[in-house]
Amino acid sequence: MQKYLTIYHELVKKIQSNQWPESTKLPSENELTEIYSTSRETIRKALNQLAQDGYIQKIRGKGSVVIDTNKFDFPVSGIVSFKELATNLQLPANTIVNELAIVEADQELQSKLNINLRDSVWKVVRARKISGEKVILDKDYFNKDYVPELTREICEDSIYDYLENQLELKISFARKEIVVEEPSEEDRALLDLEGYSNVVVIKSMVYLEDTSLFQYTESRHRPDKFRFVDFARRVK
């Protein structure tokens, strides 16, 4: 077995046995080099494997920190509101509405929502708090032709509940893209990033039953809290 894998397995044992519990800062690369009498490159490979397997997060300016391996499952394939997710996972959660406004579609929104330039669009920016930490930033854009009215109260509760039960819209399917990005200034201002150097972004275009595209969303997640899951079936 390559030496970095031997070191990796020893470090995993310390994490799994709770010798290094969640939020523990690992020894520095230099310290681990001395402990295991090996090269810095070997230590770096072991730490990279730990990060890849979800045991640690490398935080700029802080080093490597043990993260909670019991992440929340975030369903990628379904269309689930934050309120439904929090209820299903039995999480203490609430929503902060940072922005609610009608904006004119620029070229990017024109492309995302398949509308005309300067058409009216609802812009909703909401920070989602779970267990007291702001870990999701949702940026939603709704075609005003389909969603003529929104209020802060609706946005604090559940927009989908309002759309389906009051406007009687039939939300049907979504096209999604998942990317990892560096945090924007807005992310840093509105999320509790705790030094994390990336965010996981789910970009969704959401359609009604008649195939009308009515919503574009960027859901920006702190990487340590969620495991993005899907169900797949082999089709021959």
Question: Can you walk me through this structure?
Answer:
This protein has 236 residues and is an alpha+beta fold. Helices cover 29% and strands 34% of the residues. The chain has a 6-stranded antiparallel β-sheet. It has a two-stranded antiparallel sheet with strand order 1-2. A hairpin with a 3-residue loop joins strand 1 (56-59) and strand 2 (63-66). Helix 1 packs across helix 3 (40-52) and helix 2 (29-35) crosses helix 3 (40-52). The radius of gyration is 21 Å and the shape is elongated. The model has no long low-confidence stretch (mean pLDDT 90). Keywords: DNA-binding, Transcription, Transcription regulation.
Q: How do the strands of the widest beta sheet line up side by side?
A: 4-5-6-9-8-7
Largest sheet data: 6 strands, antiparallel
β-strand percent reads 25-35%
How many runs of DSSP E, i.e. beta strands? 10
Question: Helical residue percent?
Answer: 25-40%
> What is the averaged pLDDT score?
90
C-alpha end-to-end distance:
38 Å
Q: What string gives the helices and strands in order?
A: HHHEEEHEHEEHHEHEEE
Total of DSSP H or I helical runs spanning 4+ residues = 8
Structural class assignment = alpha+beta
Q: Which segments are poorly predicted (pLDDT under 50) over 5 or more consecutive residues?
A: none
Q: Which radius of gyration do the C-alpha atoms yield?
A: 21 Å
Identify the overall geometry: elongated
